[in-house]
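This week, study the protein below.
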Amino acid sequence: MRRRIALALGGAAVLTASLASSSLSPAVASPGLIAAMQRDFGLTAAQAETRLGQEITAARVMPAAQQAAGAAFGGAWFDPALGKLVVGVTDPAAADAVRQAGAETAPAKVSAAKLDATKAAIDASAKADPAPAAVSGWRTDPRAGSVVVTLRP
């Protein structure tokens, strides 16, 4: 479970790094990053470079895809099997606009706004009354349409 979270966070870090440095291209990615992707994702160097390019594209597509989904935006994630950004939509009528923006779509049970509001309520509650020691954190999971609470073993 922790490794899966670390891998997901690693992918998010790659997306963030690519946004921060729009001049980053897979051909000039740090050898350390390529080696880490090979180790953590089980990729060859060529596959890691391809994936970096796909993630950079996904990061660039994200703002337009989110705007295209509007209130139906149910979150987004990079799908390595597709090599594309996937946007959850709560209203199928928004799917065509999201695809035109360059992302794939998937049905979403709950909007990202609702998930974020639920998480914010938990955050506020934890400030007033801290979570039990067994709780290590919580996050939204747009694919499942839920807020996930992580417990220590």
Summary: The mean pLDDT is 87. Strands lie at 73-79, 84-89, 104-107, 135-141, 146-151.
